[in-house]
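Board notes (copied after class):
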Amino acid sequence: MSREVPTTETIMEYLESMIERLEQWIREQERQVKELESHGEAMKLADRLELLYSAQAMLNYIARVLKDFESWLSNPAVTAIMPEDMLRKLESMLREVAVKFAQVDIEHTNEYKDLLTKFAREGKVPSVLMLYFQQRGQALTPPSRKRRGEGETPRFF
């Protein structure tokens, strides 16, 4: 951390304003957490469409928070004064979240793959998937099975 220097009243007022905005942000995020938790209760009775829209809304929420968090950590006025132990703790917590998110993706993708495998094994393809293939002109032309380079993002459909 840099050395502390005497300050002016104007600077102190701005600092207090920053603290107020951070307190507002924290309160808003705490309210959002409560809302997300109560939303989870409502989803116990949801139909398929509601569940799909809710999952999309969850991803949208995650994306917004990620964008804001990245902006926060890209601001030198913010990060210049963060002590190393605070950064270590933050990095560790974010790595845990990243691992959990990747595990959610893996679990969901495996479950979906198993569903497609079941359809293939039974020789029964859902009509909506058949329509999708036919509209894309792929009903009789399977996608290429060549291996992608490491690190490339696969196209699923």
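Comment from the instructor: Helices lie at 9-42, 48-73, 76-79, 84-122, 127-135. DSSP finds five helices and no strands in the chain.
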